[in-house]
Amino acid sequence: MVRKILLGILLMLIAVGIFYRDLVSYGYMQAKGQIQILWNTKPVTEVLQDPTLPDSLKQRLQLIGEIKKFAVDSLGLDSSESYTTFYDQKGKPILWVLTACERFQMKPKEWRFPVIGTFAYKGFFDNARAQAEEKAFIDQGFDTQINEVSAWSTLGFFKDPILSSMLYRGEGSLANLIIHEMTHGTLFVKDNLELNENLASFVGDYGAIRFLTAKYGKDSPQLEKYEFRKQYNDALSQHIVRGAHQLDSLYKNFPSSLTTTQKDTLKMATIKHIVISSDTLLGGVIGKKYPWRGKKLPNNAFFIGYLTYHSQQNQFQKEFQTQFKGDFRKYLSHLKAKYPTSF
Question: Under a CB-based contact definition with an 8 Å cutoff, are residues 87 and 37 in contact?
C-alpha cells in the first residue's frame, strides 16, 4: 500500500514536471543564479577591513548603511538583513529583464509565478536564455526589450546583497535605489506590478531628497545635482507616458480595413514624433542628455516599461500632499492598510 502511494506521488510529480517543464526549468535557473550570488557574498564588516578596497568604495558601503538606517528610522520602512552583505560582480552584469508587448496593443505579456504573482517582465541570470526567449517572442510578432538590471528585491525571502556596481553611483542615485528596493520589502501587492513599481519609484525619489537634505543640507551640491536630474528625468518620464497613451489611442482607433503594413507605418510615425518632440523638453536639456537621433526607434515594450514605473507618480504625490499633508509615516500606514501584502 505504501509503495502504491509513493508510486502515485512520484507519477504525479513527474506529470507536474512535464506539464510545467518551462516553469520548473526557469525556476531552477533563477534559484541557481540567486544561490550562486548569495553563496559568494561577504559581510560588509569584513569587506570594510579589506586593505585592497579603495577608501572611496568603502565610503560608499558605509553610505549605504546610513541610507538604510535613515529609511528605517525616518521613513518607517521595514528593517531587514538586506544590504549587510557584499557581492563583487567583477565588472560583469548579472541579471537581465525581458519585456514583451503586443505589436498593435499597449498590452504587455504577463508571466505568473507561484507565491509572488503576475509580472509584466521576466528576469534572467542567464543572458543567453533571455535572448533566446526574446527571439521566440519576436517570431510571434511581439515587440520586445531586454534591459540590464542594477538591483532587485527578493521581498524578504533572501538577504539582498549590495552589488559592486552600486558603489559607483552618485549619492542621490544610490539613496533612491536602496530606498526603492526597501519599499518593495515593506509593501508589495500581489498581481499589481504597476502599483508596486510606481509606489517604490515615488518613495525612492521622496526618500532620496529627504536623506540628502538631512545628511548634506538643503543647499548642498549633492541635493542640487539630484533635484536637477530628477527634474529632467520626470519631464522625460511623463513625456514617454503621454506617448504611451497616444499609442494606445492610435491602436484602439485603427480602422479594421488597415493592413499590417499601414498599421506599422502609422505606429512608427507616431513613435518618431514622440521621440523627436522630447528634444525640446526643459529648453532642450532632454535632447542633450538623451539624444535620440541616429538611434533605432523604440517599440511598445519600451513604453510599457515607463508605464510600469512612472504612470502613477502624480497620483501618489497628490494623495500624499493633500490627504496626509506631507506626513510620510501616516501615508505609509495608510498604504499598508489599503494594500496589505498578500503572502
Answer: yes
Residue 193: C-alpha distances to residues 22, 71, 102, 189 (Å) = 22, 22, 18, 7
List, as one string, the DSSP characters of 286-308.
HHHHS--TTSPPP-HHHHHHHHH
Q: How many residues does the chain have?
A: 343
From residue 334, how far is each of 29, 212, 315 by CA, in Å? 37, 25, 15
Q: Which residue has the cell 543647499?
A: 219
Cβ atoms of 167 and 121 within 8 Å: the answer is no
Instruction: Quote the cell numbers at residue 85.
Output: 552583505
User: Chain-centre distance of CA 322, in angstroms?
Assistant: 27
What is the C-alpha to C-alpha distance for residues 321 and 317, in angstroms, rounded to an integer? 6
Using CA atoms, how far apart are residues 233 and 272, in angstroms rounded to an integer?
20
The string of DSSP letters for 32-81 reads: HHHHHHHHT-EEHHHHTT-TTS-HHHHHHHHHHHHHHHHIIIII-PPP-S
* Distance between CA atoms of residues 55 and 279, nearest Å: 39
Contact 335, 187 (CB under 8 A): yes
- Residue in 142, 132, 80 with CA at minimum distance from that of residue 110: 142
pLDDT digits over 206-259, tens only? Answer: 999 999 999 999 999 999 999 999 998 898 899 999 999 999 999 999 999 999
Contacts of 42 (CB under 8 A, 6+ apart): 85, 86, 87
**What is the CA angle 54-151-144, rounded to 5?**
135
Which residue is it, cell 513613435? Answer: 271
Contact 113, 126 (CB under 8 A): no
pLDDT tens digit sequence for 79-122: 888 999 999 999 999 999 999 999 999 999 999 988 788 999 99
Asked if residue 150 lies in contact with residue 73, where contact means CB atoms within 8 angstroms, the answer is no
